[in-house]
């Protein structure tokens, strides 16, 4: 992995409810450590949000709310998430969830964070791959 | 602030939800759920109030309200609940009681399309495979990925992966990340040509029967293609 790919970028990580709290309750294991280990293979410079892990704030886009049409409510829901990301000072937030990714991208401009990069965890890995070129 | 309308005792039906295994009657009314919920206050939304209404059997009021649909079922409420009441399950249960034609937005329409066609978009198999191959050709032009190809309906692969419908609709670029990782890792992987939909909107509409059909199709694909592991990121 090429750790220099994002040198100079401060990143943070968002725990999706389904991989965290929900998985912990339903499967007896919340996936908190695994994505953080992957983060550390790709970037040296990343910080956690507060609160985090099982107390993480929902992005506001889960449960089908991206598709119900109640958009004002959904954007308002995301205010705590955006404040929380802003407080980390990060310019990139990494997420391993399609709904979180969609929601954070959709609402960032509403909270003056147009430049926030929202990246899938697997996108981060793909970006940092070192390939042999012919 | 307005004074709430009193509810006539004749409208209460405490037995209404007794068969729900959600322990709503154990609520201590401590309001930790209300305090931790990011949408408490929107449109009168309050998880504690909803639990109380379930206890009192106010089904019509709950089913007609927007509350269960603006809740994301994120589970912060049940996480802090000292009585371990599974509030998101209750929300989903209320959603399930909504007339299917009154399910908000595109959720039920997408689900109907998925039950009929195998995916939320109603995308024909030929178009699906065409999109996958187009994206694969783009990857093959990137340095280090020469010779890349997408593997559809391959038998005996180590990994079978589902696809989120938005990745073959408006976000085809986002198909590339996983595929590049597979290529770099020398992974043996495949995508089913039919019933590839990874989202399962019955989860959101409270439709257990539909959810079972969608999940069952993925299990059928695993058996049909003799795949060893399932990657279902949705």
What is the element layout, followed by pairings?
The complex is a heterodimer of chains A (134) and B (234).
Chain A: E1 11-13, H1 18-27, H2 33-42, E2 46-47, H3 71-77, H4 79-88, E3 92-95, H5 98-107, E4 117-120, H6 121-128
Parallel strand pairs in A: 1-2, 1-3, 3-4
Helix pairs in contact in A: 2-6
Chain B: H1 32-36, H2 47-56, H3 59-64, H4 67-70, H5 76-80, H6 87-96, H7 107-117, H8 125-140, E1 159-161, H9 176-185, E2 189-190, H10 202-205, H11 208-224, E3 229-231
Parallel strand pairs in B: 1-2, 1-3
Describe the structure in your own words:
The complex is a heterodimer of chains A (134) and B (234). Chain A is 41% helix and 10% strand. By secondary structure, chain A is of the alpha/beta class. In chain A, strands 2-1-3-4 form a 4-stranded parallel sheet, sandwiched between helices. In chain A, strand 3 (92-95), helix 5 and strand 4 (117-120) form a beta-alpha-beta unit. The radius of gyration of chain A is 15 Å and the shape is globular. Chain A starts with 10 loop residues before the first strand and ends in a 6-residue tail after the last helix. Chain B has 234 residues and is mainly α. Chain B has 2 domains: 11-98, Orthogonal Bundle (Fumarate Reductase Iron-sulfur Protein, Chain B, domain 2); 107-231, no CATH class. Chain B has 11 helices and 3 strands. A 3-stranded parallel sheet of chain B has the order 2-1-3, with no helix packed on it. The A-B interface holds A 17, 21-22, 25, 54-55, 57-58, 60-65, 67-70, 73-74, 76-77, 79-81, 96, 98, 102, 120, 122-123, 125-127, 129, 131-134 and B 38-39, 42-43, 66, 69-76, 78-79, 88, 91, 104-107, 110, 143-146, 164, 166, 174, 176-178, 180-181, 184, 199, 201, 203-205, 233-234.
Quaternary structure: heterodimer
Parts with pLDDT < 50 across at least 5 consecutive residues of chain B: none
Strand content of chain B: under 5%
Shape of chain A: globular
**Major interchain interface with per-chain residue totals:** A-B, 39 and 42 residues
Class by SSE composition of chain A: alpha/beta
Count of domain modules of chain B = 2
Radius of gyration of chain B: 22 Å
Helix percentage range of chain A? 40-55%
Structural class assignment of chain B: mainly alpha
User: What is the overall pLDDT average of chain A?
Assistant: 97
Task: Give the N-terminus to C-terminus distance of chain A in angstroms.
Answer: 19 Å
SS summary, helix count of chain B: 11
Q: Strand order of the main beta sheet of chain A, please?
A: 2-1-3-4
Give the strand line-up of the largest sheet of chain B.
2-1-3
How many domains comprise the coordinates of chain A?
1
Strand content of chain A: 5-15%
Largest sheet of chain B: 3 strands, parallel
Helix content of chain B: 40-55%
